Structures are given as C-alpha cells and as structure tokens.
Amino acid sequence: MPRIPALLFLTLLGISGSGNAERWQERVDNDRIKTRLDLDSIKWDSDLLTYRMEMTYKKPPIYVGRRVISTSMIDCRTNMRKHIATETHFPDGTVRKTGGANLWMKLKEIDFGTGVRNEHCGTAQ
C-alpha cells in the first residue's frame, strides 16, 4: 500500500471526522484563477494517485466565469502527471468534454493550479 503523506492523511482524516464537511477544498486563489480540489475524488491504485480539480477563471475577460474540471493522474514512482479528462463549463451553460492528453509530464515543485507538491507521493524525489 502506498504511503499517504501526513498532510493529505490529516486532511482526509479531518474530512471523514466531520459529518458536514465540504466536498471541495480550495487550494489556490489568485487574481486570475480560483482552484479547488475534489477530496472525494482522490484514489490510490498501487503507485498511481488520481484526483479531480476545478478551476474557475476570474481573468482575462474572455474567460471570466468559465469553469474547467479536470481529472489527472500522478505516477508516484516517476513523479509524472497526465490529464485523463477535461470538462469545460461555459457561462452560457454549454459544456464541452474532451479526453485527456496521453502524455506524461514531469511534475514541477508546485504543479500548476493544483498546489500538489512532489512530496505528496511519499516515494517521489
């Protein structure tokens, strides 16, 4: 069983301990994008970590109100990430679903928008 990092474990423990906890946890809120992590979507399968994230655009004007929900996977052995699926919700109510990229990308120290750090896998260096 993969090691669950202390911060993630404590977060999950806190969520499971309170009956009326929010399903989403806000991770990053800057002047352009508000990002939330879907805590219920975090799944471990061997060394693969899958999670879902929602980004709401506040700037630039052509993107305001657009919500992007993406499902990503992290391979903790190689410290790589790939998008599995993306769902874009436009302000007019239309929804566009697209598949993910079949490319594995190296995780940065702080991955764009997610706040997911390398040490969250435990085995990744």
Characteristics of this structure?
mainly beta, 125 residues, 44% strand, Lipocalin, 10% helix, globular
Structure description:
This protein starts with 5 loop residues before the first helix and ends in a 19-residue tail after the last strand. Strands 1, 2, 3, 4, 5, 6 and 7 form a 7-stranded antiparallel beta sheet that branches. The chain contains 1 helix and 7 strands, in the order αβββββββ. The protein has a single domain, classed as Lipocalin, CATH 2.40.128. The protein is about 10% helix and about 45% strand. The longest helix has 12 residues. A hairpin with a 3-residue loop joins strand 1 and strand 2. With about 120 residues, the protein is mainly β. The protein is globular.
> What is the name of the CATH topology?
Lipocalin
N- and C-termini, Cα separation:
18 Å
Tally of separate helices: 1
Structural class: mainly beta
Oligomerization status of the protein chains: single chain
For the largest beta-sheet, the strand count, sense and barrel status come to: 7 strands, antiparallel
Shape descriptor reads globular
> In CATH, what is the class?
Mainly Beta
> Mean of residue pLDDT?
73
What is the strand content?
Answer: 35-45%
